[in-house]
Amino acid sequence: MNFDDIQSAWNNDNDNSKVVIPSSVDQLKSLQMPVEKLRKNMQLEFYVQFGSLLLCAFLPKMFYLSPVMIAPFYAMYLVVIAISVHYFYKFYLFYNSLRTNTLSSKDNLYSLYYEAKLNIEMYKAYTYTLFPFALIIAVMFMASDKANKAAIVLEQALVHKGMAIGIAVTFVILILMIMMITESWIKKYYGKYLTQIGQVLDQFKENA
C-alpha cells in the first residue's frame, strides 16, 4: 500500500470521525517511519532473545555445574522456555500487526498505539519474571564452585552483620540496575517511536 492509497483510506474513514487526517506525504511518513522502526527493532530483539535462550541450554557445558544440579537446572530452564513461548507468541502477534496497512484507518493507528503500550508493559513483566530464575541459576553455579566460595561468604555473612548488610545492599542495587537497564532499553528502542506516534495522534485531536 503506497502513501496515496493510505491517504485515500484515511479520507474514506474521515466521514465517521472528527479526527483530522494527515494532509501531506510528509505527515504520512511521520507515521510510517516509527512503525517501520518498531518492526525492525522487534525483529532484532527476537533474534537476540531467542539466541540467548539457546545459549543458556549449554551453560552446564560451558561452566562447571555439579551433577546434582543438572536436573534442577534443566527443570528451571524448561519453565523459562514455557514462559518465553507464551511471550514470543504475543510478541509475534503484535509484530505481525505492524504492517504498512496499519495506517489505512485512524482506528488502526489508535489500536496500534495502545497495543504497543500494552506490549511494552508485557515486555517489562517478562524481563522481571525471568530475573528470579536467572538468580536461582546463578546460585546453582556458585554452589557448584569446587572452592565452595559461596558457602564461605554465606557463613561469614551469618557471623558478621556488616557483611550481611553489604550482600543485601548489593542485591538491591542489582535489582535497581536491571530495572534501569530495562527502562533505558525500552526507551531507546521502542519508547521514542511510540512517543512520535502519540504526538501525531495528539495533533489530530488538537486539529479536530
UniProtKB/TrEMBL annotation:
Entry superkingdom: Bacteria
Segments passing through the bilayer: 46-64, 70-89, 125-143, 163-182
Keywords on record: Membrane, Transmembrane, Transmembrane helix
Keyword Transmembrane helix assigned: yes
Name used for this protein in its record: Uncharacterized protein
Phylogenetic lineage: Bacteria, Pseudomonadati, Bacteroidota, Chitinophagia, Chitinophagales
